[in-house]
Amino acid sequence: MSDLLAVDGLGRRYGDLAALDGVDLRVAPGDRLGLIGPNGAGKSTLLNLIAGSLRPTAGRIRFDGRDVTRLAPARRARLGIGRTHQHPAVWASLPALDNVLVAARLPWGRFRAGRRAKPREHARELLAGVGLTGVEQTLAGALSHGQRRQLELAMALAGEPRLLLLDEPAAGLAPPEVEVLASLLASLPLTVAILLVEHHLDLVYGFADRITVLHSGRHVHTGTVPETRSSPEVAAAYAGVAP
Ligand SMILES: Nc1ncnc2c1ncn2[C@@H]1O[C@H](COP(=O)(O)OP(=O)(O)OP(=O)(O)O)[C@@H](O)[C@H]1O
Ligand SMILES: [Mg+2]
């Protein structure tokens, strides 16, 4: 199957620091790819480069056969690249439901979800889908940290992405919330490919078909879950922390 996302020689420097250095990556439609690596490995940098909120200093990004390296984030979103952030980005002073409604009406959503005949019902369904029933009218700022993460996921899904970039969706969640997240991720349709950045390795290993490991901005490994678990390069990247 042809690649949905093709990243070649991607790099981002900050002065002397190579936050990302010559990384290649392939994601096929419907793929479940885990992206792991120690703090500062370059995971968020890679996601930000793919989403377009950060510009690369080297390399190329193609999405669905099209060079998007220089496209603005909104244009990439319109093409089908959705994302959540390491620190959830929601409109705190709006109710949860309105956050989803607004996300669906943003330029990228308008093409798909925003055209729905019953947007409020659809937004409710999206909230229910991420486990947020009964808090539709609660201001996003009053939701718990875990609920804000769930809300941001519903907002990303409102744009009906073909590629969803998730940056540490389990960070700060209590163990029962991680279980809810795991079943939610497992329930997402194969029409969306998912690139999951996560330090919660059990979650990644349970979810992903393939795992890519970054260390100090470099690609050190891509393989299946068993290959990753037994990889000496991965063990070295975590410097004694068993992955
Ligand atoms: N705006 C910036 N200016 C300078 N250095 C930066 C900037 N953003 C990131 N870096 C550096 O780039 C490297 C990669 O950072 P990045 O946030 O991508 O890591 P990460 O793998 O997401 O880490 P974590 O698991 O802690 O979220 C780190 O050394 C970080 O300090
Ligand atoms: Mg990060």
Automatic annotation (TrEMBL):
PANTHER family: CONSERVED COMPONENT OF ABC TRANSPORTER FOR NATURAL AMINO ACIDS, CONSERVED COMPONENT OF ABC TRANSPORTER FOR NATURAL AMINO ACIDS-RELATED. PROSITE patterns: ABC_TRANSPORTER_2. It comes from the Bacteria. Pfam families: ABC_tran (PF00005). One of its GO terms (molecular function) is ATP binding. InterPro entries: AAA+_ATPase, ABC_AA/LPS_Transport, ABC_transporter-like_ATP-bd, P-loop_NTPase. Keywords: ATP-binding, Nucleotide-binding, Transport. This is ABC transporter ATP-binding protein. Residues 5-241 form the ABC transporter domain. The keyword Transport applies. Signal peptide: none annotated. GO terms for cellular component: plasma membrane.
